[in-house]
Amino acid sequence: MAQEEGIWVFAEQRNGELLDVSLELLGEGRRLAERLGGEVAAILLGNGLEQLVDPLAHYGADRVYLVEGESLEEFASDTYVEVIAGLVQKSKPRVFLAGVTWQTRDFLPRVAARTGMAFAANYSKVVTDAAGALEVTRPIYGGKLDGIYAIVPEKSNSLVATATPGAVGMEKPNLEKKVELNRIEAKINSHSIRTRVIDFIKGDPRKMDIRQAEVVVAAGRGMGCAENFECVQELADLLGACVAGTRPAVDAGWLPFERQVGQTGKSVSPKLYICCGVSGAIQHTVGMKDSKHIIAINKDPDAPIFKICELGIVADVNEAVPKLIARLRQVVGSGGAQDTDSIIDKL
User: Which of 63, 176, 201, 206 could form a disulfide with 180 if both were Cys (CB 3.0 to 4.6 A apart)?
Assistant: First the structure.
């Protein structure tokens, strides 16, 4: 592999499907490359993934490093560190971008430590100053401002930076763009791999961290009382979703604190976020505004939540949610949701 600087993007995939955040970051990499020079390369690990090469080109990659092997069919932190650190040490990219996911939280800090790269998590922007240094910012004060997170001098270490899904937005694909494909056979030192994957067990939405959920059903003060949360939980169970809530709902004791979304809670960016009786105060919306699709149910037609939602339903939430559940049962059946995207399309 030739020595070259440039912008690298970790093309993360699940079961042969690229994550949206990887496509978003290819556009971000394209913008950085225009300022810093060099090409945009996507790093794709797995086995039998050639069908993903063209989409990576369409969203901005000039080159794809396709690393294949049976040892990469399932994610294992030690394996990913071994492969990616080796690639980085050979080609020395100026910037390595990746989404904030459970996988990258696991292995990317180790890659940075092994290769001597600076590490910046949950960044909002990477810019260059007059001296050629990389200036990294991240949201502060609940997303109201961007604060300087790190400055990486031009002649110093390279940078590994992760962004929350939805934080940088997705560019329109160029379907005519072609890419240079570099196939690499994974050569893993078995003595350095301390773990192996035996099985994957899908997490229980009632117990899992709401930040990892593809679908979140959030309830606010408008639900009225704890008893009314039963229909919210029923809706969530039908969608395979996590239940979350606003600070007033948590303060009222309707939900535990770890389910709170917002400025003083957690930030989420699921594929689908359904707001039930949520007014849309800024303290809550800063924690969910990056969701891909937002549906809101509120009886107040002037509620701020309707300014950011994709679909708004002006109705009493305790009447609307049972009707939504009935409609969903027609779409997905009694077994519940299987594919989030198909459910969104049918709704």
Answer: 63
Specify the 3-state DSSP secondary structure of 39: strand
**Helices 317-332 and 229-239: crossing angle, nearest 10°?**
20
User: Of the ranges 51-55, 99-103, 210-214, which is most confident?
Assistant: 51-55
Q: How many Å is the Cα radius of gyration of the chain?
A: 22
CATH code assigned to 6-192: 3.40.50.620
If one compares 174 and 130, the residue with the highest pLDDT of the two is: 174
Cα–Cα distances in angstroms (integers) from residue 269 to residues 92, 113, 213, 341, in the given order: 31, 28, 8, 15
Query: Domain 210-346 adopts which CATH fold?
Result: Rossmann fold (3.40.50)
Q: To the nearest 10°, the Cα dihedral for 285, 291, 296, 302? A: 40
- How does DSSP classify residue 177? -
Give me the mean pLDDT over the 61-87 stretch: 90
